[in-house]
Design goal:
Elements lengths: L1 H18 L1 E7 L3 H13 L4 E7 L5 H7 L5 E6 H11 L3 E6 L1 E2 L3 E3 L14 E5 L2 H13 L4 E2 L12 E3 L5 E5 L13 E4 L1 H6 L4 H4 L2 E2 L8 E6 L6 H10 L2 H10 L5 E2 L2
Length: about 260
């Protein structure tokens, strides 16, 4: 009887393991990776095993997802995804929102953007979406005026008024924290700022408003959106435990969407 009971327990555990879904989720280092680690802890008892894959830039996670190397990603906002879909033809869809990470302006040279001198060097991301986002923030701060027809995707070519004669350095987003020694200001995405030891709320000299169109999203391949593992992934992400983790660990520089 003991052997039979033991065998039954082993078979039950094996059946449970077979029932568990296993997925790989792509993230960028820093905030998104840290949060997904907490999501994985919540998802495991729900029957979903999450393997986290970190990518060092903003292009590869969507390529990896489209190619089937990962099942989902969580690192981008909808305007960026829309631009990627348009430019690269990816068949990717949003299945849930996650967090807002307000972009910040950082400087080792000035304490306020009003202190910038003529011809100041301004480092911004070189991808169209986040570069445009940085320029829109600079416009909100009164440093320049953009051509309205550019919408959410302005480039330095769309600057129609630049009273300080700012000079724009367009660089890979991950490299921007390293420019603080040379540029007068750098407009940096929160995940890369945090990875460099910067807190958007405490260390930036200006930051983006949290109510813009840049809430981040969970993305999967078109056709997978109704899978059970997708529902579990979103439910785990939107848990009270993950919300508390974000609020406790990011000092107001990351805002949850749920």
């Amino acid at each position: 009887m003991l052997r039979l009971t033991t065998l039954t327990s082993v078979l039950a555990l094996a059946a449970t393991a077979l029932m568990a879904d296993e997925i790989k989720v792509g993230v960028t280092p820093g905030v998104h990776a840290q949060i997904m680690e907490e999501v994985a802890k919540i998802a495991a008892p729900m029957g979903l095993d999450i393997d986290i894959a970190e990518f060092s830039d903003y292009v590869i996670p969507n390529t990896a997802l489209a190619d089937g190397d990962i099942e989902a990603n969580s690192f981008q906002h909808t305007p960026y995804l829309d631009n990627q879909v348009k430019d690269r033809g990816f068949e990717l869809v949003v299945v849930g929102t996650t967090i807002t990470t307000p972009m910040g302006v950082y400087s080792d040279k000035v304490g306020d953007v009003s202190e910038l001198e003529k011809g100041a060097k301004v480092a911004i991301p070189n991808d169209p979406t986040n570069g445009g986002r940085a320029l829109l923030l600079l416009q909100d701060l009164g440093l320049l005026t953009l051509d309205e027809s550019a919408g959410l995707l302005p480039s330095p070519l769309d600057v129609v008024d630049n009273p300080k004669g700012l000079k724009f350095l367009e660089l890979d987003a991950a490299q921007l924290p390293r420019t603080l020694a040379d540029a007068d200001i750098a407009v940096i995405n929160t995940n890369y700022a945090n990875a460099a030891g910067l807190n958007t709320k405490e260390d930036s000299i200006a930051m983006e408003k949290a109510d813009g169109p840049y809430v981040n999203v969970i993305v999967v391949r078109k056709g997978d959106e109704d899978q059970e593992w997708v529902k579990t992934l979103v439910e785990a992400y939107h848990s009270d435990e993950v919300k508390a983790f974000v609020e406790d660990n990011f000092a107001g520089s990351v805002i949850t969407s749920w």
